[in-house]
Description:
It is built from 16 helices and 20 strands. With 496 residues, the protein is of the alpha/beta class.
Amino acid sequence: MTIQETVPTFESLNPANGEVVGTHPVHGEAAVRAAVERAREASQWWAALGFDGRAEILGQWKGVITRRIQQLAGLMHDETGKPHGDAALEAGLAIDHLGWAAKHAEKVLSRQRRPSGMLMANVAASVEYRPLGVIGVIGPWNYPVFTPMGSIAYALAAGNAVVFKPSEYTPGIGQWLAATFSEVCDKPVFQVVTGYGETGAALCKAGVDKLAFTGSTATGKRVMAACAETLTPVLIEAGGKDAMIVDEDADLDAAVDATVWGACSNAGQTCAGVERVYVHERVYDEFLDKLVSAAKDVTAVDAPGSLVGPITMPSQIDIIRKHIDDAIARGGRAVLGGPEAVGERFVQPTILVDVPEDSAAVQDETFGPTMTVTKVHDMAEAVRLTNGTRYALGSSVFSKKNGMAVAEQIRAGMTAVNSVLSFAGIPSLPFGGVGDSGFGRIHGPDGLKEFTYAKAIARQKFKAPMLLTSFGRTEKQDKQFLQILTMMHGRSKTLK
Length: 496
Ligand code: NAD
């Protein structure tokens, strides 16, 4: 009997009907470690290819994914339940990020000069951003392509090899990504290991040079604790409780459209989805009427063409039900949906009002097509309440005059003004959170640098008249140094 035959397996299921989508190996510690070792060898080859060589291969991969996007979207639909169109949109945005990362890696990461300053004027200073080696990526199921690709694409473009552990709900999608990569590159530069949380835990301990985790805050803490044992750095992209702010001068129809989509698309299972809405008292009633009538048309059913799919993870149904029940028990009202909106596999859009700010529906991640809507006196109150949870991932503001001013006061990694979630589709912008939403950034130049270490070089161009880094320094030179220092930093007027 070979070792291969003894590997246990698990099934991924279609959340709309419980049918088996695929069977996958449960990779244990030894298999995960072996994958990381293979990746380590391949990482040297990959790094030596240079930016152009890597961009060439990543470009080919991008082409393969794009040409087969319908196949990928079909698999995403089967494993997560999300509508086919939403799946294709998600994959399309991931492809765009892959293209951006490959194209911009050289400009962002290659050696660049830095001013050396007056004290070291005889030295040429420069920095480059070098790959770390092997990156472990642990992903969630809710955006099983877009989210992990925010780490995978940027880590690969920066010159690292990657071992990816997809969610146990979406292993087929992870396999699909690795299989298409292997069509354009025959070295184990990008591999997938599958299994439950234990497989992820094994990846944390398998000797990777950095671990990029996306998932819940609770798991993020476990990942960080495991990685601390080996001083393995971590990137944590965790949960959110994002707010939408609607000012008195907002385009209400546009704000309603964005709120309904931001709260209900992907059945509300979006880390940066809208879960709370704060509306200026002058437009609150009108906004709420419009919101209810728009959200009424959005139903979640098991039929082709349904705008909203099922809840992917069965255990989430209980959390959604608890948040709604608790909100109502504490004086809230459901003006749409409510407890009866929570079915066995599908949840209908639910709008809750008059919900106390300290209740679970306002403070904790619900991850369903639900939202609380709260009246505020002014934008200062809206900002205060928006900033009042331990999460701080994304946010949005609808206002004609004050959009930027309000956005700047929100404590969150990203804010969309007069749109929702638009920041996620802009490859040059960093994506990530603060507080319980995590730390570190994917996407953009920050996302490329996240998977590197800075290597600084100071090269002496000519001998300095006054060599500071020597025991040969004279008393006179020490005095001269202090005179120069006083000239440079001793005047208070330099302080602004
Ligand atoms: P989860 O925390 O349950 O699982 C995430 C991944 O971690 C899975 O692959 C899982 O197998 C693995 N895992 C579980 N236990 C582990 C352990 N002890 N060690 C290592 N890995 C382990 O999260 P989920 O339910 O898959 O995803 C939903 C969560 O992800 C939500 O909270 C959502 O907000 C968050 N999310 C955040 C972002 C972001 O960018 N901030 C994006 C998407 C999703």
